Amino acid sequence: MDKNDLIHDISKDGVDRRGFLKCMAWTGTGLVWSINGGILSSAVFGANSAAAATAELNFVQISDTHVGFNKPANQNVLGTFQETVKRINTLPKTPDFILHTGDLTHLAADEQFDTVDQVLKGAKASQVFYVPGEHDILNDKGAQYLQRFGKGTQGNGWYSFDQKGVHFIGLVNVFNDTEGGMGILGADQLDWLKKDLAGLATSTPIVVFAHIPLWEVYAQWGWGTTDGAQALALLKRFGSVTVLNGHIHQAMQKIEGNMTFHTARSTAFPQPAPGSAPKPGPMVVPAEQLRGMLGLTRVSYVETDSHLAIVDSTLA
Ligand SMILES: [Fe+2]
Ligand SMILES: [Fe+2]
User: Fold this and answer.
1) DSSP assignment of 231-281
2) Neighbour order of strands in the sheet with 39-44
């Protein structure tokens, strides 16, 4: 499926129905995504789990833990966060690290950041990498987030690192003063990104992670990044680019050329599918359905195949 399937269907009838039905079918729980030389293949989760056991690099993405949230959509976000960590700790292979793609907390309060830190200390992974969500920079323009989770980063918290031949780039796109507005990277960060990529061979696999989707999921709800296309243009020359986001509290995937875009579920509460409600926000679902809408994402990379597999699983 390409960008046009999604966007075209939204604009044609004003409702996203058809485009998103297609997307939902693609991102249902238990699919393994593999990219191999730009050719997409998928397998039912389980049939391909041996891949993860031998992968050279395994990591887990979690997102939108919203510690401190306490509304009907989930009155025990701490409990579902802890359940997620338990899932991570029982994976067949301990992940090399965890990526948290933002909205660590609900209100950027001191004790909420403390709790996030405490809970993730219980995860069997040697390191956690973060980017902030818009909820983490409330009140103080991200000062506390940066002090606690952004040590050694540039600007508002962006940075890059390398792991087993894969280049990881954490971008910050939540500094937009308009509430519910689109993400924005800004000229400074784009300049930095250009320099960061300059020395890399096109064969280097790239993983970009940021809170708000870098691709336009649904502009009416601010689910996209105004200058995201500029970042993607800089990444175009690379043979394998994986873009991981959160913020929309649902799993969604799009493939475009050598780029795979993927959003992770929240561990806290679901949000409606784009356009299916008057506005975005915490969605109340029957209690027995909640865990099926929360979860984590596993990503594996096998160097010899230049192969990245993305697996979503829920808490259900
Ligand atoms: Fe969120
Ligand atoms: Fe968010």
Assistant:
1) HHHHHTTSS-EEEEE-SSSS-EEEEETTEEEEEPPPSS---PPTTSSSS-S
2) 39-44, 31-36, 307-314, 295-302, 57-62, 97-100, 128-130
**Closest by Cα among 50, 2, 7, 59 to 223:** 7
- Cβ-contact 172, 150 below 8 angstroms: no
Q: Which amino acid is at 258?
A: N
Report residues near ion ligand 2: CB below 5 Å: 103, 133-134, 247
Domains of the chain: 57-314 (3.60.21.10)
| Dist. CA 249 → ligand 1 center (Å) | 6
Q: Is 210 helix (H, G, I), strand (E, B) or coil?
A: coil
pTM: 0.84
- DSSP class of residue 181 equals P
**pLDDT at res. 300:** 86
pLDDT profile of the chain (316 residues), mean per 10 = 31 32 32 35 40 71 97 97 94 92 97 98 95 96 97 97 94 87 96 97 95 96 97 96 96 91 96 96 96 92 68 88
CA 187 to ligand 2 center in whole angstroms: 22
Roughly how many angstroms between the first and final C-alpha of the chain, as a whole number? 27
